[in-house]
From TrEMBL:
It is found in: Secreted. It comes from the Bacteria. Its cofactor is Ca(2+). This is S8 family serine peptidase. Keywords: Calcium, Hydrolase, Protease, Secreted, Serine protease, Signal. InterPro entries: Peptidase_S8/S53_dom, Peptidase_S8/S53_dom_sf, Peptidase_S8_Asp-AS, Peptidase_S8_His-AS, Peptidase_S8_Ser-AS, Peptidase_S8_subtilisin-like, Peptidase_S8_subtilisin-rel. Residues 1-29 form the signal peptide. Belongs to the peptidase S8 family.
């Protein structure tokens, strides 16, 4: 359909850190005018979760222009060439709750150094599931035992993947991906169904959740729907993501997988006028946190179970004040965060937050070296992959999954996936790879309960079941590394408690 438009920028099968990039789009997805690269992007949150009828006039009078809006939660993105003047004017408006920078989110996979290995020339492995390379899915499903417990209505459960898109023609995905129901939120992309993957991250996540072919996901056959918010280089504005959350909830998604994240402030933003040095407050409730909170609450209230990766910054999430110091030390845009800085959506109320574990091939479970952790912040652990117990084990300890068949994944790092498995497979590691393991278990449990009771469980019921049936790891009971334990599909479907 669109393969001939694919650019020659190719992502390796072992993805390194995806560096934040600037975008230049000809038009915005909602029909607004393009953003001037010299303008300041601001997020404006109104006190009401509905936009004022004259919102565009309010913004124009203050010297700004509305470039994106999510009316269901009372949030807009604005550009202005005079941020200091705009802030002062808008904070005097009785409808405005808070204003802050509109921050970009990146797909920050950890960096791995993998020694090159020669792969003997042979016919590709046709049954990847039985090859032993899917150690992560084997662990979560008890070597496929949970697959035998899947109910026939698994396709009635929809997992929305807010990510970089899908390869809708991938042989292990094409029978259960919903092309017509998928959407794009990336400004400048063509049409509402342009949710194809030009990065590889989203396809990889989708494969872990529900692939059903040479490789198997946690819940083979579950309906997968793409909500594309990332371009090829892995950058997305927060408001695109919140818009996608609302859309997925309105579309009736049962599970929303968010293998993405960044830091957001619960406190106050201050902007320093570069000309006068004056510090201008952006409101008592940080706009970026409020926007995420409203979107997640909206989705949960609609019945969607929201699953998020914990993040790959090796941070202790129980200390948000220290995270604020860490973030401010890395800012140079005139904004300063005062208060507690949280990783989002990982630390938002209502989200199942997943840390990443390493393991496989006879090794013990361990927190992956890059994974965030923290008492009270982690709900579950799941395989995310690393380089083995001594970090020298090679790519086999990472997570193998689907990647776009129309992209080249030979980078010379580790054994070439194509030589081993044929086209369309690759390794990645990160909490991004752990979250879809939990989403797959959640989907399987929802399908089972629908078949047995005739109705779907609430997000709270799903989270409770997954936590009660997780395999305890680390300290006895809840701990800061694995949360309530490592998710396990067979135990969840059999209701086996610790």
């Amino acid at each position: 359909m669109m393969h001939n438009t694919l650019k020659k920028s190719i992502i390796g099968f072992l993805t390194l850190v995806l560096v934040l990039s600037s975008f230049s789009f000809s038009a915005l997805a909602n029909g607004k005018t393009e953003v001037n690269s010299n303008s300041e992007r601001l997020l404006v949150v109104f006190k009401s979760e509905n936009l004022p009828n004259n919102v565009e006039q309010i913004i124009s009078n203050a010297g700004g222009e509305v470039t994106y809006e999510v009316p269901q939660i009372g949030v807009i993105e604005v550009t202005t060439n005079t941020p200091a003047t705009f802030l002062k004017e808008m904070m005097n408006n009785r409808h405005v709750l808070s204003i802050g920078p509109s921050q970009e989110v990146t797909l920050d996979l950890p960096e791995f150094e993998v020694a090159s290995e020669e792969v003997a020339s042979a016919a590709p492995i046709e049954n990847i599931w039985e090859s032993g390379y899917q150690w992560d899915i084997e662990q979560v499903t008890n070597n496929g035992a949970s697959h035998d417990l899947l109910t026939n209505n698994i396709d009635e459960v929809v997992v929305a993947v807010i990510d970089s898109g899908f390869d809708f023609d991938h042989p292990d995905l094409k029978n259960n991906v919903d092309l017509e129901g998928s959407r794009t939120f990336v400004p400048g992309t063509e049409g509402v169904t342009d949710s194809w993957d030009y990065n590889s991250h989203g396809t990889h996540v989708a494969g872990t959740i529900g692939a059903d072919g040479n490789m198997k996901g946690v819940a083979p056959g579950v309906t997968l729907r793409s909500y594309r918010v990332f371009g090829a280089t892995g950058g997305a504005q927060q408001i695109w993501i919140t818009d996608a959350i609302i859309a997925a909830a309105n579309d009736g998604a049962d599970v929303i997988n968010m293998s993405l994240g960044g830091t957001r402030l619960l406190g106050q933003w201050f902007y320093t006028d570069p000309e006068t040095g004056e510090k201008i407050r952006g409101g008592n409730s940080a706009a970026d946190y409020v926007a995420y909170n409203r979107a997640i609450r909206y989705a949960v209230n609609q019945g969607a179970t929201v699953v998020s990766s914990a993040g790959n910054s090796e941070q202790d999430l129980k200390s948000p004040a220290k995270v604020a110091d860490w973030q401010n030390a890395n800012r140079n845009d005139g904004w300063e965060a005062r208060g507690a800085v949280f990783f989002v959506p990982a630390q938002m109320p209502g989200v199942i937050t997943v840390s990443a574990t390493g393991g496989g091939f006879g090794t013990e479970d361990r927190l992956a070296f890059y994974s965030n952790y923290g008492n009270g912040a982690i709900d579950l652990g799941a395989p995310g992959g690393d380089l083995g117990p001594d970090r020298l084990g090679g790519s086999k300890y990472l997570v193998l999954s689907a990647v776009p068949t129309y992209m080249n994944f030979n980078t010379g790092r580790g054994p070439e996936a194509k030589a081993l498995f044929g086209n369309g497979y690759g390794w990645k590691g990160g909490t991004s790879m752990a979250a879809p393991q939990v989403s797959g278990v959640a989907a399987a449990y929802i399908a089972q309960q629908l078949a047995v009771t005739g109705k779907k469980p609430s997000p709270n019921q799903v989270q409770t079941r997954l936590q009660q049936t997780a395999v305890d790891a680390g300290k006895r009971g809840y701990d800061e590394i694995y949360g309530h334990g490592i998710v396990n599909a067979e135990r969840a479907l059999l209701n086996i408690r610790r």
